[in-house]
Amino acid sequence: LSHGLEQLRDLPCETLDGHRVPLWVNTGLYADIARSLDRGAEGVGLYRTEVPFMIQDRFPSEKEQQAIYREQLQAFHPQPVTMRTLDIGGDKELSYFPIKEDNPFLGWRGIRVTLDHPEIFLVQIRAMLKASEGLDNLRIMLPMISSVYEVEEALHLIHRAHGEVQDEGFQVPMPPVGVMIEVPAAVYQARELVQMVDFLSVGTNDLTQYLLAVDRNNPRVADLYHSFHPAVLQALRLIADACREAGKPMSVCGEMAGDPAAAVLLVALGCDVLSMSATNLPRVKWLLRQIRFDDARALLQQALREDNAYLVQSMLHLSLRNMG
Ligand code: PEP
Ligand code: MG
User: What is the pTM of this model?
Assistant: First the structure.
């Protein structure tokens, strides 16, 4: 099988009837680069910038960040690299910036922290923009958005940072900017949010956690955590509708995209890009190359009729097995 997976690397990810679905990767560590290229990634859908922050003992300087981001952009060039702005809080802690709260997942996380500390945000955006000079494959993505106001603020800061690096003599275009949909409030404002940016990307890890009120890391409730829950599927459908109506791309960068059976549903929903850990990429590509887009659509319709996650899962596995 591993030999077969190697041959798979250079084949396009498309269904039997020619529906193309670019498979991108989630990265964070330097080692993810080689692994991703080796598996035929067509871009980076989520570069978790907090990872390089977590392995240091102080905030990396603008110059240090610039060098780290340049590595990612260069390695994947000319393919796009989607850099998420710092997403700390929740379960991701920096030793030199402790956040102590009773409910960290409902607390000071992601964009909430960086909008309260625009100096951290601006340094990071400037470093990203400078790193992209001459490469122009940068995309910027905002985590934990729960209101239109946060996007306005963040865009304002990104434009300001862009002006500053231009004043310093860097020639960089404004990169595409996207919003992560990972909080239920954002699902219901997807129509407004998508108007403000260039793309939406669904973080199904947090979206599942918040929709189902199930801590994504708590083993005691792990069997309640399910991305096939009908509420999650309906949320995905609302997001897909908003993107289609606005004519803007939708991607999924949560773990769900790396589950082959779930990927079939996401493709049927109209996702334009699936982003996953490099390990899962070959399996997802293999399965998507075995199915017809029409059949995926039919499976989605069936999945949306089921009233619980286990039925969705068993229906999918049975149907996919019958298709070969
Ligand atoms: C997500 O929440 O689905 C996601 C991709 O982000 P993270 O796992 O880093 O929170
Ligand atoms: Mg998340």
Answer: 0.97
